[in-house]
């Protein structure tokens, strides 16, 4: 049983959400009785953005609540969708009469519960729409999804749709921009070591000491291939080639690159992966507009990395560069 | 042998430094033939700040090179001091005739090599001074030090001395401010799991599956106590009480708080630790001016946390809040 720095596994999400809010008490608050983080200064006169999902992916999603990104994040139990009731509370808390966009990762439970919450809100006269992020190129269907999984690319949807909403766009426009991000973002990940859910006695999967898994999901769902440990450069080639092959790329294209640690990966290894990814893109004449290296969408203490590419047009480029108070997205 | 996302262990530092520079190519560059990161736009007319040390503590120190913080960071091999030659190169690269301050963590090798580099620079007419950070309250002397170790508190020295230099202070003034930070910053850490140096076959130490180590150093040097795994709140109490007892604190005091992950600790656990630390400080009437939760001074993939408190007066408070382009210190 893997050691963790926690108290009672049953309280882990609530205590974590309290800890997140305490880190920036001037900007964030927790809704009473719910594991929901909202902005303290509710922003009137704009479309509100709500995201969320199971916990264990921190900083997703509470870490992205702030000016220029999300208005609320709903945290379910670890690797478990939040309830429709909780999502409904978040919608009510942030709605200012300009409509609410839900950013949902493509997992069956999340889709069902966010859609149910949207219906509850609509029944009360709140205008709600949603987009589904499905950026993981690894598998077509998976343990918890019909279609591709939503993973680290979701953060680009938060950032860019958040900037669009902050600029005063209406709900249909914010949704269209979010969908443009989804159409242009692709991710693939791998794991060196698994993670353990706090309430469980065992890791979510196991890998031999000379084995890695390519195409793994952010809950340890099976990937495309188990293989022998390779050099970092080979691993990055495998991941980035899968990502590149999934969209048409040409010399001169602009991209944003995210080298995402899965929770237990030291920064040294992420920077090493960034080096190879940069070299590959440079060789293809693809221009990296902005690089993000760090932990953006994790799987508890899983060790591994995912690589995300977002193909940028002029609008996406401008919105990606727009102001936000979320430090790691500046 | 623990799996790592690396290529050749011999090349790991150079490849990592290349990856760091590639992440912000508009702002950083690597010096040819050295694992040294410097600002691309050399800032004329101010005192230059240089830090560094063994690698494996990322983002320290290369991640702190930028406007408002360091002018150069020198990376030694993993857990190994950089050579006097390398430090000398960094000094020469950033000196603008206004003097250079070296921020050195208190390890015997670092002190010796940075002092030797300072002598080499002075022989060439460059004005150089240095400060030694020794914030770790855990042990008086240690495996690699006479006196206390320099750990995560070093980042506050970078930030505040960096802001002082950016404001146009002279070398003596920047040094005095750096020493004020050192006088007022204290840290204590703990480990749940060890790390492994890339070139080694074994972890730097080992802990049983129900055992943790309190007061451990950032290279896995022995701490104050091995004990059974406790709840997070108890661990935070142990660490923060040691830190608080080491300086006189009174109700109404202002502090900056850093909850630092050691490399393999998921954010969930860091936020949980932040919750308890906040509660303790609130109970004592100590006001937290700013909270930093994340990875600031790591030990490769070691799992664990350190807690740093910096007691703030008006000057330190203002300099801590001053502008910097280092995202995680904003």
From TrEMBL, chains A, B:
Pfam families: Dak1 (PF02733). SUPFAM superfamilies: DAK1/DegV-like. The keyword Kinase applies. Gene3D superfamilies: Dihydroxyacetone kinase, domain 1 (3.40.50.10440), Dihydroxyacetone kinase, domain 2 (3.30.1180.20). InterPro entries: DhaK_1 (IPR012736), DhaK_dom (IPR004006), Dihydroxyacetone_Kinase (IPR050861). It comes from the Bacteria. Keywords: ATP-binding, Kinase, Nucleotide-binding, Transferase. One of its GO terms (cellular component) is cytosol. One of its GO terms (biological process) is glycerol catabolic process. The keyword ATP-binding applies. Residues 8-329 form the DhaK domain. It is an enzyme of class 2 (transferase). Coiled coil: none annotated. Its EC number is 2.7.1.121, 2.7.1.29. One of its GO terms (molecular function) is phosphoenolpyruvate-glycerone phosphotransferase activity. This is Dihydroxyacetone kinase DhaK subunit.
């Amino acid at each position: 049983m893997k050691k963790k720095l926690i108290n009672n596994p049953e309280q882990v999400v609530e205590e974590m959400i309290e800890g997140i809010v305490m880190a920036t008490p001037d900007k964030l608050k927790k809704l009473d009785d719910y594991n929901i983080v909202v902005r303290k200064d509710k922003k009137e006169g704009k479309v509100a953005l709500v995201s969320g999902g199971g916990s264990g992916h921190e900083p997703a999603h509470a870490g992205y609540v702030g000016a220029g990104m999300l208005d609320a994040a709903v945290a379910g139990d670890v690797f478990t969708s939040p309830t429709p009731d909780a999502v409904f509370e978040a919608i009510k808390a942030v709605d200012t009469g300009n409509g609410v966009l839900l950013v949902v990762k493509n997992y069956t439970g999340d889709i069902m519960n966010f859609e149910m919450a949207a219906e509850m809100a609509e029944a009360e006269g709140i205008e709600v729409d949603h987009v589904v992020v499905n950026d993981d190129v690894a598998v077509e269907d998976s343990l918890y999804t019909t279609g591709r999984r939503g993973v680290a690319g979701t953060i680009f949807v938060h950032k860019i749709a958040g900037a669009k909403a902050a600029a005063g766009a209406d709900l249909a426009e914010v949704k269209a921009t979010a969908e443009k991000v989804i159409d242009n973002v692709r991710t693939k990940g791998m794991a060196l070591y698994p993670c353990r859910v706090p309430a469980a006695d065992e890791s979510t999967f196991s890998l031999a000491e000379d084995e890695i898994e390519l195409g793994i999901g952010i809950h340890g769902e099976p990937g495309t291939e188990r293989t022998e440990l390779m050099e970092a450069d080979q691993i990055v080639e495998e991941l980035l080639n899968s990502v590149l092959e999934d969209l048409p790329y040409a010399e001169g294209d602009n991209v944003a690159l995210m080298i995402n640690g899965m929770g237990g990966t030291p920064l040294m290894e992420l920077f090493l992966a960034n080096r190879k990814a940069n070299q590959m893109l440079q060789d293809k004449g693809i221009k990296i507009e902005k690089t993000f290296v760090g932990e953006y969408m994790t799987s508890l203490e899983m060790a591994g990395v995912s690589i995300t590419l977002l193909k940028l047009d002029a609008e996406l480029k401008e919105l990606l560069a727009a102001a936000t108070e979320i430090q790691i997205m500046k």
